[in-house]
Every structure is written in structure tokens, then in C-alpha cells.
Amino acid sequence: MRRIVIDTEVCEGNGLCFTIASDLFTDDERGYGQVKGDGTFGDELLGFAENAVMACPVGAISVVEGE
User: Fold this and answer.
1) CA 62/CA 30 separation, integer angstroms
2) Are 4 and 24 in contact (CB under 8 A)?
3) DSSP 8-state secondary structure symbol assigned to residue 44
4) Phi/psi at 64 (nearest 5 deg)?
5) Which of 13, 42, 45, 59 is the most exposed place for a label (fewest CB within 10 A)?
6) What distance lies between CA 19 and its chain's CA centroid?
7) Does residue 62 sit in helix, strand or coil?
8) What is the pLDDT of residue 1?
């Protein structure tokens, strides 16, 4: 199982995550990214998840495997 997570202590609200991967992320009332649901996703969204990880300018996003 794969899960996408955002470190809320690191996130600066740049908004790239929900712009790049709207199936995985949304924004909150302050414009900070939030993971949709519990963050689990299948192979069909792996590319979007990887792009969001690479695009985050502060490294707040990661993919966790095997939990």
C-alpha cells in the first residue's frame, strides 16, 4: 500500500501539490495543501504523486510505502 503525506510543520502553502495532483490533494481555507482521504492511492496516480513530491519547494510531501 502507498500513501501520500504532507508534513504540516514544513508546508508553506505554495499550492503546487493540489495544482499538480488534484486527485490526491485539496487546499484548506488558508490555501495550504491537504491530502484527500487517508492518502492511499493506486498505481494509476503514482506519477502524479511523484511529480507532487518533486515539485514541492520545501520538501513537505512524501510517499510512504508498506504501511
Assistant:
1) 21
2) yes
3) G
4) -110, 130
5) 42
6) 10
7) strand
8) 87
Cell representation of residue 29? 481555507
| Spans in the chain with pLDDT lower than 70 | 67
Q: What is the pLDDT, as a whole number, of residue 67? A: 59
H/E element holding 51? helix 46-55
Which residue's entry shows cell 508498506?
66
For CA atoms 48, 53, 58, 60, give the dihedral sign.
Answer: positive
Closest CA to 17 of 53, 64, 65, 58: 53
**pLDDT score for 23:** 96
C-alpha distances (whole Å) from 63 to each of 18, 29, 30, 31, 50 are 15, 24, 24, 21, 8
φ, ψ for residue 8, nearest 5 deg: -70, -20
Side chain identity at 64, as an amino acid letter? V
The predicted model scores a pTM of: 0.90
